[in-house]
Amino acid sequence: MISHLIEATELIARLDDPNCIVIDASWYLPAMQRDSDEEYRRACIPGTARFDLDRWSDHSSPYPHMLPDPEQFADAMRYCGVSDDSAVIVYDGMGIFSAPRLWWMLRSYGHGNVRVLNGGLPAWEREGYVTESGWDRDRGGRFTQRSVNPGYWADAHDVLTAMNGLGSLVIDARSLGRFKGSDPEPRAGLRSGHIPESRNIPYAEVLDAAGKLQPLDVLRARFTAAGVSPNHKLIASCGSGVSACILALALHQLQFDSVAVYDASWSEWGGDATFPIARFSQS
Fold it and tell me: Could you tell me the pTM of the whole model?
């Protein structure tokens, strides 16, 4: 079975491999009050490159951290030292939070040789492995610019199609309160509620207390309970396209073949009054 994860005990044996490129993809919500750049400078896995999600996003879009165009993404990967034959390992400082976003971006642009460090930097440190001060610099990779794979990316049109029940299903990674519409959205100007006919699986429910992805049997049971089937064409959504990638990672770990991420997510849907919303119930 193909795994999209790597354990710290496996990664330690690969650090001397020049073809193995490790990237710190940490990014935090403002409410977390953490500085990802400062944390990288203070402690990272030896030899780690730094990927700044805010820097390497589509700044022409009104929505946050949208997928950059092929040229910008190729530049970002070259900056991080990634070449076409690189085995890429991505991690973050939460355990599993923002790293799946870069995992998804790489796969969207045709680089399938990428895995997420299960448990992130905390798991590495719990093993007692050494860290070093990070040095953010251009590492001169040779990454070929490619077009995005449409099977990994979804827009509002795809979501509207999914609402019609044509073999598609939207799964929402936000908290239950935000999904039900009982809790306000953290971004100003957005309506509360959820996409009609979508299912709610808060991203925290696919992680364990240590910030690792839950075992496969636990993941399978959770998605099955929500009515999610391998036969569905799935679209993962969230607030702004970050935690949706955690659900996408979990589903790919379960060998689900058809999983896209609604890139703009609730930042678009919740702010556009022409899109329908539902409240107070789980379909």
Answer: 0.96
